[in-house]
Amino acid sequence: MNFIPCPSPNFDDRAGGQSPSMIILHYTGTITAEEARERFCNESPTDSVGRISPHYLIDGYGGIYKFVEEDKRAWHAGHASWEGVTDINSASIGIEIWNTGHEFDYEEFRPLQIESVIGLIKDIRTRWNISHHNILGHSDVAPGRKLDPGEKFPWTKLAQAGIGVMPDIHYSASFEIDDFYAALKEYGYTYTNDQDILLKEFRRHFLPHLLNHKCLTNEDIDAIGFLSQIKPKIGLPSPETQKIR
Ligand SMILES: [Zn+2]
Prior knowledge:
The protein is of the alpha/beta class. The chain is 33% helix and 12% strand. The strands form two sheets. It has a six-stranded mixed sheet, with helices on both faces. The protein is globular, with a radius of gyration of 17 Å.
């Protein structure tokens, strides 16, 4: 793949020398991609966010900028948790996608951007054992604190291209309603116990059409039922990766 080099000083070593096992997708939430690019290379920012960086940034035309080597820890996830892992930066590769985000007028992601996201993730997965279950949004690992990449991100398009996983709408689960939040936690949502936040952020990724729906529905229950059932399979290293390593 062709990357535009844009080395950032904002990185360090992955804790314990671990290999990346997750991919976290973000939106930049900036008016321009250039603004984000400059921010990711800024060694002494004056705002309260501090030094930040992803590994990659995808601009509005699908161009891919590379800031940090994949074996190093970039600083994109902040306070977060997934399956009890809290140092998400050490465990993940971070991809920022230029989009103005909820703070401005949150536009649709562009087809060229999504093409690049799919190509980049496929490329990354030839180098590292990253299960489809661990291809996530920032809002999945920091629900209630982060909204990105948001409900307009086309996770279904990624799933159709063989990236990540989405619920099968024809699946029907045999779950007790009391088990729903336990199932979410078991699936990976360990950042908070706030049920309203968990339901909303689960839907933002997996059932965006239900985002503003108030009550828990059968569709929510079927979705987590399906995802829980296939998790052991998608948790395995991908065959293409096994061949290469
Ligand atoms: Zn983010």
